[in-house]
Amino acid sequence: MNVQPKFNYDSLRSQKARFSVRFGNAWHVVVIAIGIMMVVLGVWMLIEHGSVGWLMLGLSGPMVMLSIWWEKDLKTAEINKNPQTIDDVMAADVLGKLPRRPTPTDIAEAITGTRAGQFLALRLGLTPNFLHNISVDNPDQTEQVWKAAIEIWQSTESPKITSAVLAAAIVKQLPQHNSLLANMKIDFHDIEETIKWYERIKALIEEHNKKPLRTGGIARDWSFGYTPLLSRFAQNISANISGQMLTTKLAAHESALEQMMKIFSSGGRQNIALIGADGAGKSTVVSAFAEMLIDGHQGVPGSLMYQQVFMLDASSLVSVASGRGELENLVTMILNEAFLSKNVILCLDNAQLFFEEGIGSVDLSNVLLPILEAGRLRMILTMDDQRFLQISQMKPQLAHALNTIAIQPSTEAETMKIMRDQLVIFEAQHKVTYMYQALAEAYRVGDRYVQDLAMPGKALKILEAAASYARGGLVTAQSVDDAIEKTLGIKISTANTGDEREKLLNLETLIHQRMINQSRAVTVVSDAIRRARTGVRNQNRPIGAFLFLGPTGVGKTELSKALADVYFGGEGSMIRLDLNEFVRPDDVARLIADGARDPGSLTAQVQKKPFSVVLLDEIEKAHPQVLTTLLQLLDEGILRDENNREISFRDTIVIATSNAGADRIREYIERGYQLEQFEQTFINELINANLFRPEFLNRFDEIVLFRPLGKEELLQVVDLILAGVNKTLAPQKIQVAVEEEGKKLLVEAGYDPRLGARPMRRVVQRAVENTVAKQMLAGTVAPGSTTIITTEQIRQILSSQTPQAPVIPPAS
Questions:
Q1: What is the pLDDT of residues 37-56, one digit of tens each?
Q2: Number of folded domains in the chain?
Q3: Helix (H) or strand (E) holding 388
Q4: Where are the membrane-spanning stretches (predicted)?
Q5: Helix 477-488 to helix 436-449 angle, to the nearest 10 degrees?
Q6: β-pair partners for 577
Q7: How far apart are CA 632 and CA 510, in angstroms?
């Protein structure tokens, strides 16, 4: 339509709009009330006074005409068939508020209070104050708003130029609108999508009001067979629809519905297997199919009209029937009942549970396969795609007997449409309102963090969970992030509190409270965390992937524990795998085993703790095939388990440790080199020695060398060990301290450049912990006191426990 950006204040439609806005519904109610009173009075006068009553009845005619005028013209405010100016296509609720020569500010004020304007304010945050602040009080700028409004109206295919379209136009004519919207976490495309959302909800309401309840009449209900077992063990989807379903019409689903109609109306095998990942919409397709049949949808063949769809759940049957024989008898009776009713289509939800052995499942192939092959009972089976492939390999005859239809996960655009439709239900159930930003965030985090479902199931699951984290009845993007963080224990939003920012800026200090030196290693892992929490890292890889090289006992494992404790919520958030146990090629299966079979597999542990530190100890000892499997983890942040499910490692820090070349590192240090001076040379030596392949080393963000600890550093290690002892003794209100000279004796006794800090713990245990234990048993240490371990005590203990060289008698 070639609509000019001009406003005709005196047009007939503008005058009607002003009349409608001025008098509104109240005027209509008064007219109806007067009309009813005149009719009642006219009837009474007709009975009591004869012909005078006809006069009163005649006078009620104008009231009826005014009411019809309101309902058919003023209320609907249909746009002109051949619109010339913008007032010909503008919604009446905003058109009636505009002055003769409106400014952008006047338009912003007119938007206030309208339904479309309120919708945009609530869903996006484009409030009346916001629009007023960005508007100008200059009528010369109004034509730019009109032009933008016409463009948006046409691009969104809205029936009219509503106040939502005008609000978007006011925003668009602002030169810096992109940066302004970015602060609200949206862009202009999101505004256009929200306008479409508003029009979609209006259309759904109108469709619902016009749609009749179940058609077919009494004869349809009488034709339903007697189905007591089905009523007990299955859900009658058709009975639950009653013309009130909200199904989003996706192109992929429409194609599946057409195939289902053709198969069930043909003379072939009357079964359909809907194959797709959980959450892809298999149950939605079944419900849409049931709705088409029960409501007499156009295009439904007569043989399918008013057929009922009963959904049978395998788990409910297995829980009732104790043995296989009893279960087979029960299923056989249910199938017979469905067949004899002549109007039942039986749906086996999660049908893979009927064809395999295991917890919560049972193999009923010998019962179901003959019925599927005969094809006389109409059946719909829904199956997970991966499980269907496995069953097909074990039972190829079953796969040949089924008419399969693939249900693909929805795209981002389709998922957004589905979410917008489902919000009508969610908001009514949870008494909340969702912002548009919450939908976009639900798709983003669902796609990333929910691994056991496909779209749209991922996003819908998160969206419903976010209702519990609404603030003031409003579900925002932060509500979605809170739902994920609380349920999965993952930090996904950027650091936005003062406490967390302070912790991030001081991570090195916090980690050094638990370990000594190794400043470069501490810095690289701290930098990785800061990148993750500010959103500047690669989202398709782990938070960080590091290879720690160096002698034993220098802090490689301790840094991993400290990181888990300081930032990931405790040492329980560290997943540790000793790769010296993965030295055979078939050990790859143990890495990716299903959690139900092996909860200790790497994939199973990360699935339970997706926000964690993954420590791969002694990686040089793993079989090359194991290392090849880990390449995908380091490169793409995912690892497929044995069921071909993607397990995300993108919220983990992966740390691999190795003692390879430890003697060489000590040699460089003893010759006076700094780590930075020989690091690259040392790495090249490892490659040349075939200890690590270059493509494997290249997958790490940083390769960090740990230097051996000197005696001064071990003195600090003693302080850390003693702090741990005092933490253990704290519940008994006892503390222990060691004289400074005594600490030096402990260091001398525990110093071994080959073993690092590990011998120190054994020395402290012998000299300090054993002494305190004896004092507590003797009653010489009172609660609330601090016992001092003297230098002399330590000297005596160490000298008495120093192993003596064995005396070898001379040969006879």
A1: 877 777 777 777 777 777 77
A2: 5
A3: helix 385-394
A4: 26-47
A5: 30
A6: 616
A7: 32
